[in-house]
Structures are given as C-alpha cells and as structure tokens.
Design brief:
The protein is of the alpha/beta class. The protein has a single domain, classed as Vaccinia Virus protein VP39 (Rossmann fold). The chain is 50% helix and 14% strand. It contains 15 helices and seven strands. The chain is globular and about 60 Å long. The model is unreliable at 373-383 (pLDDT under 50). The structure holds the ligand CC(C)=CCC[C@@H](C)[C@H]1CC[C@H]2C3=C(CC[C@]12C)[C@@]1(C)CC[C@H](O)C[C@@H]1CC3 and S-adenosylmethionine (SAM). S-adenosylmethionine (SAM) binds next to helix 5, helix 7 and strand 2.
C-alpha cells in the first residue's frame, strides 16, 4: 500500500473509531465514546504482533509493520495515558519536594535548553503526542513548533489543546511518518524528540530524516529509550524485560545505547552530549509512580496521579474497565489494553530497577555547519 493510501485509510479509521467529536473528550469519557467494532479492530492490529514470540521472524514482522502497529497502539492507549499521566507522555527525574507536574515540565525545559532553542526559532517536535511538551516549550522559549505525528487521533487532540490554550499562533501539528518526512531540506533551526524515536524500526531511518530537515549548524536533542550497557540480549531474563517493554509500549525492537549513538554518527551528526539521566544517585527514581511506593509521594496534590499509576490504582482501573466492557459502556478490547499496559508498567519498573533500561538517554547532536561531506554519509546510512 502506498504512503498516501495508508494515510487516507488511517484518517478514515480514526474518524470511525473516535467519532465526530474527535479530540474534545479525554480519558474514560473518550473511551466510552469509542466505536465498538473499530476498537476491536485497533486492539487486534496492535496485539497481533505481540504473541509472546521473540525469534527473528517475529521481530522482523514487528519491524516491517511499525507504522500501522504504532498507529493502532496509540489509538487504543491515548485515553488511558491522559487519564493516568496527563498530556506529556514521558518520564522525568524527581527532585525532593517537587510535584509531578513540575518535574515533567522541568524535563522538557532542560531538553529545550540543551537543544539551544531560542525565541522565534522554528522547531520540529518529532513524535509530538498530544502536544504537552510542545505547548510547554513554546511558552518557555517563545519558539514556534511544528509537531509531527503519525497518529490522527493525537493530532486532533494536540490541535484542540493549542486552540484552547491560545497557542495556535505558535504551533501546528501535522500527520506524517518520521521515517519519511515531507518537509523541505534545511527547514528547522532545532529539532527535538521525547521518548518517540524508539518506535522506529531502524534508528538511522529517523535520524537521517531529522538530519535532512535540520538547518546546517542546527541541533537535535533527544530523550531516547534504550537498553543500557548492562543489557545482554542473550540473557533470557534480560530479554524478557525488554520484551515486556516492547509489548506494553508498542515498540518493534528496543535497541542498545551504542546502536543509537552510532546511528547518529552514521547519519553525519556530531554527538555533543551523550548522558543517561537515569544513571544517578537520585533519592526518588524516575519509575516510582509505577511502583506504588507511597513513601515517594511528594505532596497531597499528586495523590490522584499516584493512585492511578500505582499497582493498586492500576488494578482498580482494570477492574472498572472490565466491568464497563461487560456492561457495554466501554468498547470491546479495552480490558486487553489495560492488560498490555500492565505489562508495560511491570517491564519498565524491572528495567529501571536493574538499570538495564533507560527512558532518558540524552543525546545532543549537531548537524555540521559545513554539510557537504556529511550529507553524503547520511544518504549512505539510509540506503
Ligand atoms: C511508550 C513510550 C515510548 C513512552 C510513554 C511513557 C509513559 C508516559 C507511559 C509508559 C507506560 C504508561 C502507563 C500509564 C501511563 C503512561 C505510561 C507511564 C498508565 C499509568 C495509565 C493508566 C493505566 O491504568 C495504567 C498505565 C500503566 C502504564
Ligand atoms: C510516548 S509518545 C511521546 C509523545 C510526546 N513526545 C510526549 O512526550 O508527550 C510517542 C509518540 O511518537 C509518535 N510516533 C510513533 N511512531 C511514529 C512515526 N513513525 N512517525 C511519527 N510519529 C510517530 C506516537 O504517535 C506518539 O505520539
């Protein structure tokens, strides 16, 4: 199927699944308005590749179908994400006494600072979700942001929120696959990506597209999801944790940190910063909201968030959704989604505790001001 046909079909499917008021409802109320048949199809499309197999063939199928699989994943999890986490779909470090919202915003400010984003810069947000980080970074720096996303439902939501918060002048959201970008070469002053490029079947694919659309001398800053140096692909326990993360988070294949760093270099980038922000002595670990360890909760205002993300809260949501599904209030397949998200939570905590995985490998990479030689390298990397 051609890229244009796929886009058209995904847009039509999104309308069928989420209805005409697409984007305006959030969380459980949005879940309750979904079309039953379309939801069943979306869940099936997402889960068909995660049948417990981790052999090369199964992996190959997941890599090949990355676009539809991710599109379907976000069609079914977005409402749960917003209900449980808010509108920025990423992790962050926690400082003592800091609220959940402040920690999430600080993580975004830090990336904007490391990318060197300034007022009036034209910035690309690769895999922008429902625009939480784009809105924060636009307010924080005064830049203009284009959010790129292959999920129509999230784009509709991002546009709705930009309008609602009077930010439409500073931002726009467009549909597209980050493996094949439609923007002109050398368009953006800066590019950033937050916990999104891990959905790529090959990192050189997305990084070389970013390289192409970035102006010479511009920087790309990313929080990458990778397996750390402690990870051994041949260790069954390690592979199980990586598989849980892949299954629960809609990722075709988790890559090792060296693969990511090398991919940036292969595309012609000069890597200025390469730092795992999760590798620290923080008293409060990044994954704590998913552990249900109440001792870490920093203030009363965050109690609702921590209940929803904790083990107990997740069991409560699963039971509630399962009852809603039985009585026809939630579409069929919703229970399976909560089960997959449970896998995500378990895998992420196990990966975090063992330091086999990090969701915040910070890379800051520069496209050289003089690009002649490196453009050739970047073309070679995508072939
Ligand atoms: C998938 C990628 C690359 C990034 C998303 C990171 C996080 C925002 C999500 C990873 C696992 C998610 C879960 C939830 C919210 C969003 C995540 C933390 C829930 C807490 C949402 C409410 C459900 O009842 C349970 C979910 C567990 C997993
Ligand atoms: C975990 S979310 C992060 C969203 C956002 N960066 C944030 O922090 O809120 C990953 C995002 O990447 C997007 N994505 C995944 N694969 C993509 C692709 N091939 N092209 C464009 N966007 C993609 C998803 O639709 C989703 O919005």
């Amino acid at each position: 199927m051609s890229e244009t046909e796929l886009r058209k079909r995904q847009a039509e499917f999104t309308k069928e699944l989420h209805g005409n008021e697409i984007g305006r409802k959030t969380g459980l109320s949005a879940l309750m308005s979904k079309n039953n048949t379309a939801q069943k199809e979306a869940v099936q499309k997402y889960l068909k590749h995660w049948d417990g197999k981790t052999d090369k063939d199964a992996e190959e199928r997941r890599l090949e179908d990355y676009n539809e699989a991710t599109h379907s994943y976000y069609n079914v999890v977005t409402d749960f994400y917003e209900y449980g986490w808010g509108s920025s779909f990423h992790f962050s470090r926690f400082y003592k006494g800091e609220s959940f919202a402040a920690s999430i915003a600080r993580h975004e400010h830090y990336l904007a600072y490391k990318a060197g984003i300034k007022k009036d810069d034209l910035v690309l947000d690769v895999g922008c979700g429902v625009g939480g980080p784009a809105r924060e970074i636009a307010r924080f720096t005064g830049c203009n942001v284009i959010g790129l996303n292959n999920n129509d439902y999230q784009i509709a939501k991002a546009k709705y929120y930009a309008e609602k918060y009077n930010l439409s002048d500073q931002m726009d959201f467009v549909k597209g696959d980050f493996m094949h970008m439609d923007f002109e070469e050398n368009t953006f002053d800066r590019v950033y990506a937050i916990e999104a490029t891990c959905h790529a079947p090959k990192l050189e694919g997305v990084y070389s597209e970013i390289y192409k659309v970035l102006k010479p001398g511009g920087t790309f800053a990313v929080y990458e999801w990778v397996m750390t140096d402690n990870y051994d692909e041949n260790n069954a326990e390690h592979r199980k944790i990586a598989y849980e993360i892949e299954l629960g988070d809609g990722i075709p294949k988790m890559f090792h940190v060296d693969v990511a760093k090398q991919a940036l270099k292969n595309c012609g980038f000069e890597v200025l910063v390469s730092e795992d922000l999760a590798d620290n002595e923080d008293e409060i670990p990044w994954y704590y909201p998913l552990t249900g360890e109440w001792k870490y909760v920093q203030n009363l205002a965050n109690l609702a968030t921590f209940f929803r993300t904790s083990y107990l809260g997740r069991q409560f949501t699963t039971t509630m959704v399962s009852l809603m599904e039985r009585f026809g209030l939630a579409p069929e397949g919703s229970k399976e989604v909560t089960a997959a998200l449970e896998n995500a939570a378990v895998g992420l905590v196990a990966g975090g505790r063992s330091k086999l995985f990090t969701p915040m490998m910070l890379f800051v990479a520069k496209k050289p001001a003089e690009v002649e030689a490196s453009t050739k390298t970047s073309k070679k990397a995508t072939q």
